[in-house]
Amino acid sequence: MDYLTLLQILDSTIRLSIPLLLACLAGLFSERAGIFDIGLEGKMLMSAFFSAAVAFTTGSVWIGLLAGILASMSMSAIHGLASITFRGNQLISGVAINFLAAGMTVLIAQDWFRQGGRTPSLEGSARFQELTLPFADALRGVPIFGPLYADLISGHSILVYIGFAVVPLSWWVLYRTRFGLRLRAVGEAPEAVDTAGVSVIGLRFAAVAICGVLCGLAGAYLATGLQAGFVKDMTAGRGFIALAALIFSKWRPWYALSACLLFGLLQAVALRYQSIDLGGFVIPVQFMDALPYILTVVILAGFVGKAIPPRAGGEPYVKER
Amino acid sequence: MTDTPAIELKGISKAFGPVQANKDISIRVMPGTIHGIIGENGAGKSTLMSILYGFYKADKGEIFIRGKKTEIPDSQAAIAAGIGMVFQHFKLVQNFTVLENVILGAEDGALLRPSLAKARDVLKHLADEYELQVAPEALIENLSVGHQQRVEILKALYREADILILDEPTGVLTPAEADHLFRILDNLRKEGKTIILITHKLREIMEITDTVSVMRRGEMTATVNTSETDPAQLAELMVGRKVLLRVDKKPAEPKQVVLEVENLRRTDSKGVERLKGISLHVRAGEILGIAGVAGNGQSELLEVLGGYADATGSIRINGEEIDLTGKHSDGQSRRARGIAHVPEDRQHEGLIMPFGAWENLVFGYHHDPEYQSGMLMDNAGIREEAAGKMERFDVRPPNPALAARNFSGGNQQKLVLAREIERNPDLLLVGQPTRGVDIGAIEFIHQRILQLRDAGKAILLVSVELDEILSMSDRIAVMFDGQIMGERLPEETDQAELGLLMAGVTEQTDKPAIDAINEQLEAKLAREEARNG
User: CA-to-CA distance for B318 and B313, rounded, in angstroms?
Assistant: First the structure.
């Protein structure tokens, strides 16, 4: 494998990692606050559709992004209402959101655009363009570093850079601010937060809202950055892989970055080597497509070690005397 | 000292549906004193304190803090009024450091660093002042229970509380830790803090409080100066009738060995060895008491003997070896060999809470032919038998159809005892028979266990209550860190000696530790003398 191929694989690793990373961090905030969220998939899907639909209609990808975030947050609000206010089962609420999103996006898409449940292709300012970082072209000639900078580091859409910036930001918020301390506490021991005179419900809604924003970014990136428009079920299980990455990373931001890059790499390799000829026996395309998912299961089952979820996760908080 | 009470409650009433938890309660606590509140479970102590800490709103009544009428709608208001609470079950974040727990909810700004620095200073200061030493950077989950409790007290003091409420603070402590806690409380009192101590242990009330209020069935039955009362009077006020505080028992008449345990070892799922070669025996007609601080292998010992944990070593019942790991190692096979088990955790292991009393009274024995009627269970017969058992064990209310969770702690325990004792076992394993049980029911449960002993059965009693161990046992074995530290006869030992063994201190191993603890005991005696004189 030559250097350029390697760069290409890494480049697509980055592109494929970003939606996972944003969704994973979304789940991190929610679950750290004690609200399990298997509805990441549904929120991303909602955001993907609404960002694409609104971007197409208005011609502005930024308005599309805003719409995507709002759509995702409204799903968060439903999840919060069901699992925080009404103390419902968080898994059931999450499943409901996934079903709701899967059905509603296609239904509305068909009603609005009549293209078989997809949005029209996005062009120009209705799509996030690749940014060229300063000196990218000038430095291209420098050996080793030049192509690395020009092809790998430069040339992504703004959401990619935002995605990477969210990692240190999340770490800082969680471990260096009052809000982060309380958020982590409410996922571990809500009774401690409550007796300290801080609102458990308020904190959990804040966490769920942050989860909505990040899922919104992830979904918008899928439909308006990575691809040019919404297609049915375009999240393709990324919400669940993000959950796997979350467990793999043991609910910590920097580890989440590595986990998502790993899963992104698996997808990139599968995309690049669609069929591998092993001298007579050709590994089928279907197997390569399934490989990232198979490896997800293998990694989770065999290599995670002991992952301790937030202790109060999944449990609605009921005040005791 | 002023004449204004630190706390005054006037006519507090609170009802939950038809249950009147607090009825017209009034109380005055002067600053710089320790006020005890004593009462049985369900007497309304915790409800009253929850009202004071803003968890519940009283239906009627007024609260005055330092003479000023104060509304306490939530915990925040309680904290603002200078009230701190140390709950029975600690409200700590296990994987946070001590500092993080202390500042949680009382941070100075949006960023943590300045708050942490300030808390570090304050904690250092508090540690020197009140003997409240804790490592500020330690994670809570790595701290002993006694230290965790100190963190709870520090949390309150960090919020500048000058009224401190402690709910059953010594339930989880070793005798030495409890002594240290009382020393801390004494220091706080000297600094002018007001302390309310909720407990059901008469000894603690007599040892540390200045005044004491007794609650029964939601009402305050009396408030007296501690120096003018005695345990017998307080017990009578609590229960509403004369109570036998001492267990009345005949000398044991031990016969043949029923249970013989040799070199029993058990390693738990985390790879930690919980039983490190236990050897003991129990004879027919005697009670072997196992003393120890919770978590030193007593639970594992009961689990292995009761048949729901694997182990290596040997257990013999009436001379016959028992299967320790194979398919005959389960509760069912153990019961068939004449072992009955009253587990430590009656709500999870002893009973199925949503099921009726009659069902709970046959669990474990429900395969017996006598409970079958053809292919079905003989439910009518089981119900009838249940009614008889409930009557003989004075379970109240005597309603076999009522779900187990609707009985009080004491009556739940009587259900388990009735089931196990009425099977007439050769060996009875009893774990914490009176934990969370009212004083009146304790007397009954102790009598029943003694009756079984006098009927020539072997009894293994595990309890963290030293009083119970000392009064019930014919021999006492002390467990520490999965080992038996020593065996004593109850008439030849005392709380202090057992307390040392429970802390893992034997004369040979740890002379300095003994000296340190002796010093503490002497200091305590000196303090008591100073207070009395």
Answer: 17
